[in-house]
TrEMBL record:
The family this protein is said to belong to: Belongs to the UPF0098 family.
Superkingdom, natural source: Bacteria
SUPFAM superfamilies to which the protein is assigned, alphabetical: PEBP-like
One Pfam entry name: PBP
Organism field: Mycetocola tolaasinivorans
Protein name: YbhB/YbcL family Raf kinase inhibitor-like protein
PANTHER family named in the record: PEBP (PHOSPHATIDYLETHANOLAMINE-BINDING PROTEIN) FAMILY PROTEIN (PTHR30289:SF1), UNCHARACTERIZED PROTEIN YBCL-RELATED (PTHR30289)
């Protein structure tokens, strides 16, 4: 993983575990379903990717998931998805779990509003001509069952709280480009 604009480069190193997806491969492009129809990308469906993880360390009591684009032309990146309080017994999410109702998420978990203002998975929507963007899809293994932030918190505040409770992190990086 490149350190150029890597959102984890300045955080303390933690162990990793295995994260896989049947939706996309690490370092490869998202498919059309993972692009944003809400942001006007033709064919975009804002469908969250399928994720499976294993090998989290002993003592993991919950997980959080974040999807972050550090290449967005905002000066602060762009949060596409944030999910908190996934029970330690859950080790996968189906594709589309991050819809506007969170219908595919475990009962105790919830989606936070991303930078779009909506609590859902917002697909990739790099500005036309801005080049390739990277989407850091990350599962964070935590030492608490409840991260202590509410659904009205920002993903950045979730990340701040994650940093105090992180046991390990697993990341896949997807890419997207808009040549329109």
């Amino acid at each position: 993983m490149t350190t150029l604009n890597n959102p984890f480069a300045r955080l303390p190193e933690v162990p990793s575990f295995t994260l896989t997806s049947t939706t996309f491969a690490d370092g490869e492009a998202f498919g059309p379903a993972q692009y944003s129809g809400l942001f006007g990308v033709p064919g975009g469906e804002d469908r969250s990717p399928q994720l499976s993880w294993s090998g989290a360390p002993e003592g993991t009591l919950s997980y959080a998931i974040t999807v972050f684009d550090p290449d967005a032309p905002t000066g602060s990146g762009f949060w596409h998805w944030a999910v908190a309080n996934i029970p330690a017994s859950v080790t996968s999410l189906a594709e589309g779990a991050g819809d506007e109702t969170g219908s595919g998420l475990p009962d105790s978990s919830y989606q936070l509003r991303g930078d779009s203002g909506a609590a859902l998975f917002l697909g990739a929507a790099p500005p036309a001509g801005h080049g390739e963007h990277r989407y850091f899809v990350t599962v964070h293994a935590l030492d608490v069952a409840d991260i202590g932030v509410g659904p009205d918190a920002t993903p950045a505040f979730l990340g701040f709280n994650i940093s105090s409770h992180i046991l390990a992190r697993a990341t896949l990086v997807a890419t997207a480009i808009n040549n329109a």
